[in-house]
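Example S7 (structure tokens).
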């Protein structure tokens, strides 16, 4: 890679042309991705792309006037100091907030590049062009806000927020909640059966640990293999599987960890069981709240479904362990 300070004026123009062309194509990709979900916002990115194309054409005209038709094949990835980006523009159904963050980074980087390049350039015409482009890039964030204010009505923005909320629920909340429910409820029976059968905290902890990790692995594979997200819009199956598996394991470990209380302590079994029971109570109420808040389930109905189910499983474990 080449240091920015070693770029000559021809190389600076070539990098600027490549950068503007890249921004133009990325913004067009964003507009295409948003067209069906947010048509008004897609129009905003169409305008942004047209502006970048105008910048590219101005830079190309200056370059060809001074150095001929052949543009040097140097890109910003060949120069130290540019942000190394993940290709988020290749991801379908990217959230509108993630797209806007990418645009903000690009515009801020372009402004810094033009300011630094203008100070490094001796040619008055090139320096004036770069300074003008820096001023335009500095105002792009405000321009984007103005475009959005004119082209994206409040109802459209409300729709965007609602769509994003549904995507968050589908991609993160739903698999996480499924895992937390499974981990918190399904591990109750083996954990408390072991506890009341052995009255030994360490043995109970090992059973709970095995049940939690086993359930987490099982749920991770089940969620990841349920669908690839292409039709349901539920996002990456690997990410959903990781979220579901992790929350499953955490749900089981929450009421397993109290059994790390050493057996040598007086009333160790009663202390660990009391703490574990309190953790179970909190877990079930948290699950009920999440279902009510994100899944549009009436709170009392969620409490009835989750708490009652958890109590039944808990009672079954105690009954089996005490038999």
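Recovered sequence:
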């Amino acid at each position: 890679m080449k240091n920015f300070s070693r770029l000559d004026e021809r190389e600076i123009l070539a990098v600027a042309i490549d950068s503007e062309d890249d921004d133009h194509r990325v913004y067009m990709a964003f507009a295409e991705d948003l067209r069906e979900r947010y048509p008004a916002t897609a129009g905003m990115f169409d305008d942004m792309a047209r502006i970048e194309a105008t910048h590219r054409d101005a830079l190309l005209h200056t370059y060809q006037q001074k150095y001929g038709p052949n543009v040097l094949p140097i890109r910003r990835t060949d120069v130290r100091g540019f942000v190394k980006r993940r290709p988020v523009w290749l991801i379908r159904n990217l959230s509108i907030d993630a797209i806007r963050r990418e645009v903000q980074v690009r515009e801020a980087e372009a402004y810094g590049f033009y300011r630094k390049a203008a100070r490094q350039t001796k040619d008055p015409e090139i320096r004036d062009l770069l300074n003008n482009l820096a001023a335009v890039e500095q105002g792009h964030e405000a321009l984007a806000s103005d475009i959005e204010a004119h082209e994206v009505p409040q109802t459209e923005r409300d729709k965007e927020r609602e769509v994003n909320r549904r995507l968050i629920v589908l991609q993160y909340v739903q698999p996480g909640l499924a895992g937390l429910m499974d981990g918190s409820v399904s591990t109750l029976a083996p954990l408390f059966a072991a506890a009341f059968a052995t009255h030994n905290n360490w043995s109970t902890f090992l059973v709970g640990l095995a049940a939690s990790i086993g359930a987490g692995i099982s749920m991770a594979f089940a969620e990841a293999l349920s669908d690839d997200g292409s039709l349901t819009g539920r996002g990456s199956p690997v990410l959903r599987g990781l979220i579901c598996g992790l929350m499953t394991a955490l749900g089981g470990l929450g009421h397993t960890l109290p059994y790390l209380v050493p057996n040598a302590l007086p009333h160790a079994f009663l202390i660990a069981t009391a703490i574990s029971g309190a953790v179970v109570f909190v877990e079930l109420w948290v699950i009920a709240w999440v279902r009510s808040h994100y899944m549009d389930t009436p709170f009392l109905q969620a409490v009835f479904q989750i708490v009652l189910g958890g109590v039944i499983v808990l009672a079954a474990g105690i009954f089996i362990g005490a038999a």
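Notes on this example. The chain is about 75% helix and 0% strand.
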